[in-house]
UniProtKB/TrEMBL annotation:
Protein name per its UniProtKB record: Oxidoreductase
Similarity comment: family membership: Belongs to the Gfo/Idh/MocA family.
Classification via PANTHER family: OS10G0403700 PROTEIN (PTHR46368:SF4), PTHR46368
InterPro entries assigned to the protein according to its UniProt record, in alphabetical order: Gfo/Idh/MocA-like_OxRdtase_N (IPR000683), GFO_IDH_MocA-like_dom (IPR055170), NAD(P)-bd_dom_sf (IPR036291)
All copies of domain GFO/IDH/MocA-like oxidoreductase, residue ranges: 168-282
A Pfam family hit: GFO_IDH_MocA
Gene Ontology MF: a single term: nucleotide binding
Domain Gfo/Idh/MocA-like oxidoreductase N-terminal: 29-148
Amino acid sequence: MTVIECGENIASAAQASSHSMAEAEYPKIRFGVVGCADIARKLSRAVSLAPNATLHGVGSRSLEKARAFAAANGFPAGAKVHGSYEAVLDDPEIDAVYVPLPTSLHVRWAVLAANKKKHVLLEKPVALNVAQFDEIVAACESNGVQLMDGTMWMHHPRTAKMTHFLSDANRFGQLRSIHTNFTFAVDADFLENDIRVKPDLDGLGSLGDEGWYCLRAILWAANYELPKTVIASRKPEINKAGVILSCGASLYWEDGKVATFHCSFMTNLTMDITAVGTKGTLHVHDFIIPYEEKEASFYAATESSFDDFVTKWRAQPSKHIIKTDIPQEVLMVTEFSRLVADIKFNNSKPEKKWPTISRKTQLVLDAVKASIERGFEPVHI
């Protein structure tokens, strides 16, 4: 098996250059964290490590909880601690907010943040449905603020390498099928008490929490071309409150491409992508969170075949290892902060690529949910 050791690739090297320039030219973007969800610990660390961002404040419904969160997560001594979300948004010194609140609260707080002229880094899924997300987008556009969702793996240098392989007509050819999955096994306490199984908090359940990643990966592999038809798989697992615990679907394009995905709270941890083209195949087994923080890999094969006796492959897929000293969540914060700084200091317009990708992901997620609710009928996009 061929192993290719890569340092920072061209894309990430260019990012590093632009980041260092941004750090030298502009003051750091000041972040406020709206809510103390567990995922906010990871993002707070990322802001601390990003060269062009700094933690400026945090708010919770409880002042004591906000104080404990700031103390436990490396907030600088001068950071402000608030006993409400509103206080974070009202702070004139905060440039951008990270919103890790339950999905049902996204439309309220993201719109309010935008109306307060705060740039918004929003956890996924971005909303309960695309209509809600459109409200968020409209508020961000009318106030000239940047919007990006928190799909961290999109910013890993491995993703740029994989994109290059998929776009190579000589090595990969034309995309024909994509298969993705994200599953992890939860305990009884999760199934009873976690917000992701509560219809009034995160009513999309596994579909929103895990399926979002699967659908994003499918769209990414298809160069963000929307499928024509979505059909949910039969017999999803649904709890007594009506929240999805596991599900899947098939997606179809007019040119014959097909995709499938599966997500579940009831199955061992997996996070795979298989993309098959007319000439090549891509496999990745840890696409959401790499096995190791400082390196990630994928497998690529071109014109695979068997030997004469059909007892083995002529050549095995090659393993490509991408090393990075900068974790993917830090790269995401750095890129978001770069865009915010460009708006703040250069009067640039917000980058529309990220909300456009978010909307397409939400649109397909909505179609899966609609197909389940309609008895697994085809839903056309």
